[in-house]
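Title: Prediction job returns without error message
Component: structure pipeline
Severity: low
Priority: P3
Assignee: unassigned

Description:
Job completed but the reporter wants confirmation the result is attached to the right record. Sequence as submitted:
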Amino acid sequence: MFSKIVVHRVGNKINGESLMLSQEELQLEEGMAELLENYFLGSFKSEETFHFYSDSYLINNPVYSSVSEIFDDKAKFIWESENIAKHLFEAAENPRVQGGELFIAYFEDEREGTERVDKIGIFKTEKRESFLKISPQEDNFDIEKDQGIGLSKIDKAALIYNNDKETGYVLSVVDNNKNGDMYYWFEDFLKVKQRDDDYFHTQEALMVYKDYITKQLPQEFEVSKADQADFLNKSINFFKEKEEFKLDDFASEVLGDEHVIESFVNFKTDYEQDMQINIAEEFPISEAAVKKTQRHFKSIIKLDKNFHIYIHGDRQKLAQGEDEKGKYYMLYFDKEV
């Protein structure tokens, strides 16, 4: 449960809206505090984590600087929360960004796995939902329409863990309402990057391989759509079955051909240079990253507008050819389900 909480109103300056700052913490009954905590934390479902960064010195990142001050001295909570609100107000450079309430909360000595760690939460509400208020009036009822904040999921949120201060802390971040501006929360306000961890390496290794199979491989080698589907199936199964990724094992078990392996390694190197990232050649595989990324590995062969073939397994049970009627695929199976 949070021990401190304050709320500010942050409008969009481009649209002439104002910034309203609170001078005191919110005083909440236990039931309301529990309701807010569930609302704030309910959207943090991914194991993907981030860290603050700066183009110069890390201390020049405004949010990093403010949360550092709060972690060092909780007496600065209100003052630094105002600085965070001011920075968010200035970050709005798009008229489509919606104004809303900015909640900043301090979670003290919270259990995180086997450890206890302080956390600071930054939460922004934007959307308003219509609801009906029904009130008894003597022998009848009165009904009126009003608007408020829905409690299904928070619009924007960041949870900063008091770990790894020197490298920009550890953050969980969500943006459920991008308002046509995908950079406002992650880049313009927080200025965060994904952390270089097992989740990151698993995710990036899968995506670079998918790009290679679907884009580069057909340019260099004669491969059919069925062959591409088989490569994709083998790769995702490799990540599901192994606990650790080793590039040499992956290359021999999934790619097989030495010319394809060489081509893939060159593609991976170019990808890392273009994206300015480094994907390790050995790392523990993140099950959560595999589960999230596998939806991009759909092995589908689309035939004109008539048929889609979904391939889930044995490539040897799929054959193709051509006769006087046209091109065809032949499917072998044991039983009809």
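Comment from assignee: result matches the submitted record. The mean pLDDT is 89.
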